[in-house]
Specification:
With 755 residues, the protein is an alpha/beta fold. The protein has 4 domains: 148 residues, no CATH class; 71 residues, DNA polymerase, domain 1, CATH 1.10.150; 232 residues, Rossmann fold (3-Layer(aba) Sandwich); 166 residues, Rossmann fold, CATH 3.40.50. The protein is built from 35 helices and 15 strands. The strands form 3 sheets. It has a 7-stranded parallel β-sheet, sandwiched between helices. The termini are far apart. This is DEAD/DEAH box helicase. It holds the Pfam family Helicase_C. One of its GO terms (molecular function) is helicase activity.
Length: 755
Amino acid sequence: MTEAGSTEGGAPTGRAARELLARADGLLEAARGVLADHTRAVGAVRTALDPLLDALVRKELSAIPVSRLKDVTEGRLRLGAVEQAGFTTVEQVYGAGRYELRQIPGVGAQTADQTLAAAGQIAHAVRDTVALRIDMDAPDDATTALVTALYRLVEAGPDVRRAVDGARRLATGLEPLLAAAGPARGRLRMVFTRREARARVLEAVASVRADVADAVERGLPPLFAQVSVDLLRDPGSEVAAWVDFELRSAEYYSLLAEMSGTGPDRDAAEGFLPSGIADRVRGLRLDDARLRVSLRGYQSFGARFALAQKRVILGDEMGLGKTVQAIAALAHLAARGETHFLVVCPASVLINWTREVRARSTLRPLPVHGPQRQEAFAEWRESGGVALTTFDALHTLPRAGESGVRPGMLVVDEAHYVKNPATRRARAVSGWSEGTEHVLFLTGTPMENRVEEFRSLVRHLQPELAPSVSTTHGVAGSHAFRRAVAPAYLRRNQQDVLTELPALVQVDEWEEFSEADQRAYHEAVAAGHFMRMRRAAYAHPATSAKLNRLRELIAEADDNGLKVVVFSYFREVLDTVRQSLGEGVFGPLSGSVPAARRQELIDGFAATDGHAVLLSQIQAGGIGLNMQAASVVILCEPQIKPTMEHQAVARAHRMGQIRTVQVHRLLATDSVDQRMLDILARKERLFDAYARRSDVAETTPDAVDVSDGSLARRIVEEEQQRLAAVADAASPEPSRSDTAGRTRGLPFGSGASPA
């Protein structure tokens, strides 16, 4: 052995060993520094958060009568003396000390302790349920301190979790190894170390070398340095912290839920899956090395569900981040060596997918669309990445078997587009899904129509499961249905997992027809023209009752600096609204507007300082586009499909929204609007039973759908009969016109186009 160093038993010795141990000392110090910086940052958040949570708990306790303390002790607690002393709520008891209670005549030490313990148990239970909402429109010192403290952790981003996890593992493993390798730091110590002890020292040195090499390979030294800097970074000013909160509120709330322990109920976050499947999903560790975003607990579970079950439908309600869960699954597979991925989606969200993949991961998005799609596909086949294509373009590309490449995962967004197996888009998707190990369907409304259509989605994924999804399960109740599809289906709702989401206030704005409105409506009914009936309220803008109310709502929003999205099924109605509002209105978004231009309009709307108005056809804006800059949503008329309204509202009321969302639905009394709501009420309840809440008792799934044509025909017939009866009552002579029979030739298609 020379002083320059050599190896003995595979371990460096001499100078090489000393240099290695010195390097390991520095790495251990950096790991400890990250842990200390993170502990300080978390401590600052808790210092600001705890008083706010305590205030929420006390507010809840103040509404609980003191008599409920008996429930905690199963009636054994004597509260007569406490109540006589003026304690009426649990909050008053919780805020009292043992000494104060002991001063009450008839209250001994045991009663005082039991009373305080019971109040503490209730307070603990309440603390698990309260959710803090930060109101940026009314900031105070306490919430400003919290936002400022959270800023450091948010600014450091998802790297913090990786750095802290790496630092903990390194500190735990490296510290005892360095102690064991201590004699190798000096020549004389090694010379006088006995052979057996020397062997243990060299073994420890070899382990240190392996740990240091692994840390370097994982990029931990520069990661520790960067995260330590980020965790010490101040926002610069309180205003800067609030601005950052407005831009990234979802990340702030995600940290709050994690640190306060007030996240969603685990069963709800896991979609009420059977325990066997849930346990298997929990056992999979998600590799986030190629992810650039921190996932919420339910999002991590969703990504792991897709990976563990391999071929599934993720049916989360709008606004819960299905896209980022899919990207997390792709990133996991990429970290494990997969190179090619394929995403199929509507053209309207292709740009959004491109932006999300680039922003949320280190994966390379490659749009395969338009005139150059064959060249782009060839590039993807050679170089890999995430190929993004549309349903209409997919069938023009070589099939998986023909292309010579199998994607590591196929993701199909808005998968209900392929519910009909006879369509060209469904056949194209099937061609790629066959033989692909991991397939993920994303859709917020897989149960919108008949069970058979849902079954067709399952048939793409797990054909052996499809026969078990039958109307029999629907008759047996929704729980039976959920059990049948659990291996391939996961769904969570906003109210279950987004505890911080601001309130959604829905208001039906009922208006009386003006005389001109009434005439236009009667003419449409007499002609048996359903679509003209739906837009008759806007036929005469100068006297339109709905349009007048819409202007009032927008004026009120303008006064409060709020952004507004106006939805209608009809382009003609949106043109009328635009002319009525004048200049400065964004849109309308419609199916004829290219996807890139749609995103530009939404970006411009979001970037406007203060009030702005965006007009959109509900079909174009209700799918795949994020409009959370808006806090007021106006629906110009009710929709045939309840889920169309759900999707449109969810564009604004979704993760990242920071203000209460007001939804105003403009309705005309004694009209097609009222008939539609009456008929669709039952359809929506059935939809909720199978795709939204899954807790409504037995019914038949075949009743979930009411076809557009049959609904229109029924409403026209009812309105013709109603107006004929009104005319009969108003006239002494029989004047009923024979119009009821016209609905047999109902011009549902003629003039029914939304364009």
